[in-house]
Structure formats: C-alpha cells, structure tokens
Amino acid sequence: MTESRDTGAPGGRKDPFWNSVASFGLDDIFVLPEWISGLKGDKTASVTSGNIPLEQAALVSRVGDCRGCRLCEERNKIVFGGGNPSSGIVFIGEGPGANEDIQGEPFVGRAGKLLDKILAAIDLDRDSIYITNIVKCRPPGNRTPSKDEVAACWWILEEQLRIMKPGVIVTLGAPASRTMTGSSDGIGKLRGTIHRYGDIPVIPTYHPAALLRTDALKRPVWEDMKMLRKLLDELGLPGTGKN
After folding, report:
1. Which of 18, 89, 153, 204 has the most other CB atoms within 10 Å of its CB?
2. First CA to last CA distance, the chain
3. Per residue in 151-184, pLDDT tens?
C-alpha cells in the first residue's frame, strides 16, 4: 500500500477546495469570494453546535429547494445523503441515478445493491457508513456532472464533511475521485493509493456500476476494500456515536 503526498494546489494554496477546482481547470473562476458566497445561498454563519444531526438538519434547511445549477430543472428530489453521519466513514459517488432521484436516497438501484454486498464483505453496512454524492441532483440520462454543476454543488459537500469530520473517505468512480483528490488522472491510476483531502485519507475505487458492466474490476475493488478494512482497524472505525 502506498500513500500519495499532498502537494497543495497551484499558487501555493493548501485548501483542498482549490485542489479540486484546479483539477477542473477552474482556478481563475473562483477568485472572487463574493461569487463563491453567492453559490451558498444563505450567507449566515454555519451552525457549530457539535451535534451532527442538528447541523445536518440545518444544512438541509439551507439547501432548501436549491436552484444553484441547471440540474434542478429536471430533478424529482434532492439526494442529500444517507446512513450514519457519526460513523467516521464517508463514501462519495458521482451523482444520483434514476431510482435515487425518485426515492431521494443514495445508491438504491442495482449499483446500490452491489455496494451493499461489497460493504458486507468487509463487515460494514448502511448503518456503519455515510453515503453521499458530489452533486445532489440527478444529471439527465445519468451523464457525468459538468464542471460548473460540480462547482455549484461543492459547498454542500464541503459543509457535510465539515460537520461529520470523517476519519476516512472512499470515492466511487473517476468524477468523485478526481474531485476529492484534485487529480486529473483516471480511476485506474488513482486507485490502489491512499490520497488526502486535507488531513483525511481518501481511498478511490471503481464505482459499483462499473462492476456491473465489467467483471474484471471486481478484483481491484476487493483489493481496495481490503486496504480500507486495514485502515479502519488502525483508526478504530466505524464510530458508534449517535451524536
């Protein structure tokens, strides 16, 4: 197992946000703080009670009926996330699919059922992790989210991670992995290595949907999950707190 070195973002920025922005070639767009604030809608200070469910509820309220990008035009439901936000383990996918858009829950289709089996193989389940996506609304036709859609939705994920303070992040698929690592590499190159989002270890792996199409990817995903299980044991995760 190897570990990548966080080299920081262009121009000496160390904030993981700028690493993600740089991976999309959007560095110049995000220079104006007031523009970033405008994406967030509610400019009031974030709740910092230390109570994770309370802060999550406050964030959902701030998101409201988000109209921050074109994805709002065809969505049925905003898919905020699901699972145990106090677990210390966050899985991040690309975006909701058709079933998720209808039910308002992440990973409930065929890929979600396969993810459940993958989790069970390393003694995890939906109650011992938290699952969310880079974008919270379904891209039409399940296409990859565009750069501006990812940028518009970034603040929500950033707040989720601030609230949950996870010990480990697992990224599912190339879009999520590139966003969280700030790299432009493909998932085949990113996986197998522990990256960093700030101080948080990030383990990229293939999206379960890719495994449904290609059996050969099951072996590398299993290797990634063994890496994850080893790291979780070292960190004493998942957490059991309900706060």
Report:
1. 204
2. 33
3. 999 999 999 999 999 999 999 999 999 999 999 9
